[in-house]
Each structure stands twice: as structure tokens, then as C-alpha cells.
Design brief:
The chain has about 80 residues and is mainly alpha-helical. The chain has one domain (about 15-75). Helices cover about 70% and strands about 0% of the residues. It is built from three helices and no strands. The protein has helices at about 15-30, 40-60, 60-75. Helix 1 packs antiparallel against helix 2 (about 40-60). It starts with 14 loop residues before the first helix and ends with a helix.
Length: about 80
């Protein structure tokens, strides 16, 4: 009968920041496809590029949120 509306998610990253993040992430992930002598660097580039693209596409940064939560928690403890 009554349906709850989904919560409205407000992006915490500006539009310009999101565009830059998506472009940088896609370029970094694409560069990871090139064979390199050190496979760890390729995996690291792919993971970082994927994260940046996700961050830009969603407008949400879990790392920033975690740092804010940690800092808030530390300031309450003092």
C-alpha cells in the first residue's frame, strides 16, 4: 500500500571533480592493460584506476568518508 521512498544520495564530489576522476581512472586502468615486467604495478594501476572511475561515476568516496569518520571519532575521544 505505502511504499517507502529510497533515500536521496547527494554526491559529495563536485561535477568537475567527478569528470576528472572518471577520465583519470579510465586512463590509468587502460594503461594497466599494457604488459609490464612488474605485474604488481599493473594490478595496482588497474585497481587504482577502477576505484577512481567508480568514485567519479557515483560521486561517493568511501575513503574520504572513512577518514572523516575516523577524525570525528578521534576528536570525541580527546
Amino acid at each position: 500500500m505505502f511504499r517507502a521512498k529510497p533515500p536521496v544520495v547527494v554526491p559529495e564530489i563536485s561535477t568537475e571533480g567527478r569528470v576528472v576522476s572518471v577520465i583519470a581512472g579510465l586512463l590509468l586502468a587502460a594503461s594497466a592493460v599494457k604488459p609490464r615486467p612488474n605485474r604488481l604495478l599493473s594490478v595496482l594501476a588497474l585497481a587504482t584506476g577502477s576505484y577512481l572511475a567508480y568514485r567519479g561515476a557515483t560521486g561517493h568516496c568511501p575513503l574520504t568518508e572513512a577518514v572523516r569518520d575516523h577524525c570525528r571519532h578521534d576528536s570525541r575521544a580527546r
